[in-house]
Specification:
The chain is α/β, with parallel strands linked by helices and 322 residues long. The chain folds into two domains: 135 residues, Rossmann fold, CATH 3.40.50; 156 residues, 3-Layer(aba) Sandwich (Rossmann fold), CATH 3.40.50. Helices cover 41% and strands 13% of the residues. The chain has a five-stranded parallel beta sheet. The protein has a four-stranded parallel beta sheet with strand order 2-1-3-4, sandwiched between helices. Strand 6, helix 8 and strand 7 form a beta-alpha-beta unit. Helix 6 packs across helix 7. The radius of gyration is 20 Å and the shape is globular. The model has no long low-confidence stretch (mean pLDDT 96). The protein binds phosphoric acid mono(formamide)ester and norvaline. Phosphoric acid mono(formamide)ester (CP) binds next to helix 2. This is Ornithine carbamoyltransferase. Pathway: Amino-acid biosynthesis; L-arginine biosynthesis; L-arginine from L-ornithine and carbamoyl phosphate: step 1/3.
């Protein structure tokens, strides 16, 4: 495929998304076949927000492919404050072979991709979480056999996870519903993109304020935290507003009898989901979390495998002055 970055599900064709999923399945089935594929290559991981799954799955994933990772914490880099995004990109491209970034504003990953000569991977922004969506649909494929035609009901905040779930669902021909309180819908341009892509793939994207309507006869019921990282100050206010959107047994019962419950995690048990649902036999949240590893190994392989580690830039005589 020869893609350089992994910034958004929207940047790919449906065939390319399916290619990543096929590669992830192959890697999951035959991990040792790829164990030396990224030998001698280093992934820098810039985290401006906390993480368990993203950090561990990228770290373990690149090691399983024969490479190394470097964890850069929020305190160390301070993108755009201690140092400009441009300078961070121009420094890191001299020393590592790819950069994964978890940050706030989405334009930071886009600017990093514009400035850096090495691949950039979006490890979550306020706008989207594409690596999560790859793991989500890998899990759905494993459990349901196929994604096209399935009803995927997202209940809660129309946030980054919701956007990527809609984008990938549209790519794969799913019927994605998002049930949110008024004022917390996914962004209009994200819905518009999903509708347009869905028109080509058979997928649809439907918004509602009624969680029962979204969950009714669904194959997948998905939720996420009501206040995302960076919105902690709103958590108390949101808790009251979002309570009717809690995925509890009464709501989950409206889905198909073999529906699966999904959550990107971390979960706030007792808020967006009850213990009864997340600990039920229908819950696949830990399989979903494990699939972050396999899905991201496919992304790392595709982006990094055939890129050589460059020779150091040789000294050049000065011929001009500024
Ligand atoms: N789902 C997810 O991205 O988890 P972390 O925030 O722990 O990385
Ligand atoms: N919407 C959540 C997802 C965490 C993986 C957040 O951004 O905090």
């Amino acid at each position: 495929m020869g893609r350089h970055n992994f910034l958004s599900i929207k940047d790919f064709s449906p065939e390319e998304i399916r290619y990543f999923l096929d590669l992830a399945r192959e890697i999951k089935s035959h991990p040792s076949a790829h164990s030396g594929a990224l030998k001698g290559k280093t992934l820098a991981m810039i985290f401006e927000k906390p993480s368990l799954r993203t950090r561990v799955s990228f770290d373990v994933g690149i090691q399983q492919l024969g490479g190394f990772s470097l964890y850069l914490s929020p305190a160390e880099i301070s993108l755009g404050k201690r140092e400009s995004v441009y300078d961070v990109a121009k420094n890191l491209e001299r020393m590592v072979q790819a950069i994964m970034i978890r940050t706030y504003a989405h334009d930071i990953v886009e600017r990093m991709a514009e400035y850096a000569s090495i691949p950039i991977i979006n490890g979550l922004t306020d706008y989207s979480h594409p690596c999560q969506a790859m793991a989500d649909y890998l899990t759905i494929q494993e459990l349901k056999g196929n994604v096209a035609g399935l009803k995927v009901a997202y209940v809660g905040d129309g946030n980054n996870v919701c956007h990527s779930l809609m984008f990938a669902g549209a790519q794969l021909g799913a019927h994605v519903w998002a049930a949110t309180p008024e004022g917390y819908e996914p962004k209009p341009e994200a819905v518009e993109w999903a509708l347009q892509r869905g028109a080509k793939t058979g997928g649809t994207c439907t918004l509602t304020h009624d969680p029962a309507e979204a969950v009714s006869a669904a194959d997948v019921v998905y939720t996420d935290v009501w206040a995302s990282m960076g919105q902690e100050a709103e958590a108390e206010m949101r808790r009251k507003l979002f309570l009717p959107y809690q995925v509890n047994s009464d709501l989950f019962r409206k889905a198909k009898f073999d529906a699966v419950f999904m959550h990107c995690l971390p979960a706030h048990r007792g808020d967006e989901v009850t213990d009864e649902v997340i600990d039920s036999p229908n819950s696949v949240v830990y399989q979903q979390a494990e699939n972050r590893l396999h899905a991201q190994k496919a992304i790392l392989l595709e982006l990094m495998q055939y890129r050589d580690v460059p020779e150091p830039v040789p000294f050049q005589e000065m011929t001009t002055s500024v």
